[in-house]
Amino acid sequence: MYFYVVTIKGIAMIKNRAKILKDKILKMNNIDCHESLWTPCEDILRNFYEKNYAVVVLNCRIDLNVDHRKLLNLWTKAKLRITVDGGTRRWLKWLEAHEYETNNTVKPPDLITGDMDSLPPHLLSFFEEKGSKVIRTPDQNQTDFTKALRELKTHCEQNLIEVDTVFVLADTSGRFDQIIANINTLYKASEFLGDKKIYQIASNSISWLLQAGNHRISIPENLRRDKEWCALIPMGAPCIVTTTGLKWNLDKSTLNFGGMVSTSNTYSGEPYVTVSTDRPLLWSMGIEAIL
To answer: Which of 51, 54, 177, 239 could form a disulfide with 80 if both were Cys (CB 3.0 to 4.6 A apart)?
Structure first.
């Protein structure tokens, strides 16, 4: 029998070598090592689940027009599964509509969070019996979405779960105020979740926040071919933005409400869009062409 002792110094050396190897691979593919790389379409729709990720289901309709097996796979392979208040009922209805049962095959939510004003008590009991942990978050000064992300952080820390990406099922449901509230949560989340990537997935789009800095976004061939829409929206404050890979690129342009906002943009045909911004900036992209 052999025993191996790995010291803290040894772990640091391994991590450093891994980083060097990663940087070499990025350079070989002409990717700036200081850029944040975003590949949500590949991650969600092509069963490329190599990330440590969580899934959060908000109290919105689940209307993603994708093979239901892929969505279920996204749920099943997650490190952490959270339903938020009425999102629990929405998820159960989606499962029933696709003839799935919450048994040993379909895992129940790990956490059910929220003020529970939109979740019937019998459904709460149903999932509690299946092992879901219920965390009531009655604070009305924050949205259930914001509180759910805070509970995600706490749960991961307490249970030593590593999560670097969060996929949020968050369709618009026709409520403009909820759309704005969900975007506001993206801005707040960076304060307590750090650099974790949070994608909001709607029936025909994916949106997320680009922090100040440089970004490279992978654009699937279908979206480039069909000239699917994309947008850069300065929700928080004016942003100075430079891009490549768009039909209408920006060159140190100021985006702000009351001035220019880059909506209804599309792609030039290159496999990546690069974005440089001096402040947080919302990116949104249509995905109907790949569903």
So the answer is: 54
Give residue for tokens 């670097």.
164
Domains plus CATH for the chain? 36-290 (3.40.50.10240)
What number is the average pLDDT over the span 50-67? 86
90 CB contacts (<8 Å, ≥6 apart)? 57, 59, 60, 61, 62, 83
Token couple for 268: 């030039």
Of the candidates 43, 60, 52, 287, which has an alpha carbon nearest to the alpha carbon of residue 182? 60
Q: Tens of pLDDT along 29-49?
A: 444 558 999 999 887 766 545
Q: Which of 56, 77, 68, 74 is nearest to 98 (CA)?
A: 68
Question: Both tokens of residue 81?
Answer: 């599964």
What is the rounded distance in angstroms from the CA atom of residue 41 to the CA atom of residue 46?
7
Contact assessment for residue 83 and residue 57, using Cβ atoms and an 8 Å cutoff: yes
Dig out the tokens for 207 from the structure: 């949106």
Amino acid at 143: T
pLDDT tens track for 145-187 = 999 999 999 999 999 999 999 999 998 767 899 899 999 999 9
DSSP for residue 6: -
Pairing of strands 213-218, 36-38: parallel
Give the separation between CA 231 and CA 241, rounded to whole angstroms: 12
User: Cβ neighbours of residue 107 under 8 Å, at least 6 residues apart?
Assistant: 75, 76, 81
Instruction: Annotate 68-84 with DSSP letters as a single string.
Output: HHHHHHHHHT-SEEEEE
Of residues 285, 283, 286, the one with CA closest to residue 210: 283
Concatenating the DSSP letter of every residue in 115-142 gives --SSS-HHHHHHHHHTTPEEEE---TTS
Look at the pTM and tell me if it is higher than 0.90.
no
